Amino acid sequence: MKIGQIFKARRSGWLRYGAAVVFNVAATLITMGLWSLLQPRTTALFLAAVTVTAWYGGFAPALLATALAAVSMEYFFDAPIHSFSISWAHIVQLTAFVLVALLVSWLNAARELADDTAQNLNQTIQAIVRASPLPIFVLDLDMNVKIWNPAAMYVFGWSEQELRGLPLPIVPPFEQKVVRTLRDRVLEGESFVGIKSHRLRRDGVMLEVNTSTAPLHDARGNVNGIMVVVTNVVELPQPFTESARIPNVEKDTDVLESKQQKYGADSLLLGGD
Predict the structure, then answer these.
(1) Cβ contacts of residue 134 below 8 Å, gap of 6+?
(2) Which residues sit opposite 211 in a β-bridge?
């Protein structure tokens, strides 16, 4: 949650609307003090007052600030001062100011709505990941652990506190090359479903699993992480030797090409084995 949202959640209605009055009075007094430097332009500080009110109190208080600013500018600064004798020139100026102030208020409200929507979506996704019975983890671009759900801790033996920010420890040496190849392709935007592979448990036991991976993107659409879901976990007979590996990874990086030749170019994206 952003700082503005935290503060706003703690404010009562009268504080948010009171802020519109306080910021307008401040803009009026400062404009009076700097009148010799600002005249005949009076809108700058009042527009700032509307912007700060929109950030502090939200859309409705910003509307109040806009109305108060229009009244203050007309009464205190537009000739003849201390009156509401409105000319066509004043009407045009006030209309322009009100439209700009409304645009600023609307943009701020739209930004806050987008932030709230993104925050709610993020919380929902985190809840789904935490509650999933399947091991799910998220890696950064360097294959360091960012998220490690309780199911992953149960299956592999490491807690999230132990692994966060550290390299993924569950990939056996003979699969490092194929994992790097998969990572490079995921970073290019590809997703893979049901790739058979081996993973290590904390106690050294070898597991046969299916892994599905997909890229995560930031607000600009750039890949900033990798999500991995593990299914079909089977504990292999011990002691495990490399000769007992599943056929799909015997040739390391050739696994992707061999599967594509057998099932077609889109098989990995659709989950073919």
Answers:
(1) 151, 229, 230, 231
(2) 195, 230
What span, in angstroms and rounded, lies between the C-alpha atoms of 255 and 273? 11
> Which class for 173: exposed (0-12), middle (13-18), buried (19 or more C-beta within 10 A)?
exposed
Helix axes 88-131, 59-72, angle to 10 degrees: 160
- Give the CB-side neighbour count of residue 170, counting CA atoms within 13 A: 27
Cα distances (angstroms) measured from residue 84 to each of 2, 240, 256: 41, 90, 77
pLDDT tens digits for range 188-244: 989 999 999 999 999 999 999 999 999 998 878 899 999 999 999 998 876 665 555
Lookup: tokens for 90: 């004043």
Asked if the bond preceding 173 is cis, omega within 30° of 0, the reply is no
Ramachandran angles phi, psi of 233, nearest 5°: -75, 125
Q: Which residue's structure tokens are 């506190």?
A: 161
The tokens for 140 are 């950064």
Residue 254 to residues 69, 152, 169, 175, 192, Cα–Cα distance (Å): 69, 28, 23, 12, 15
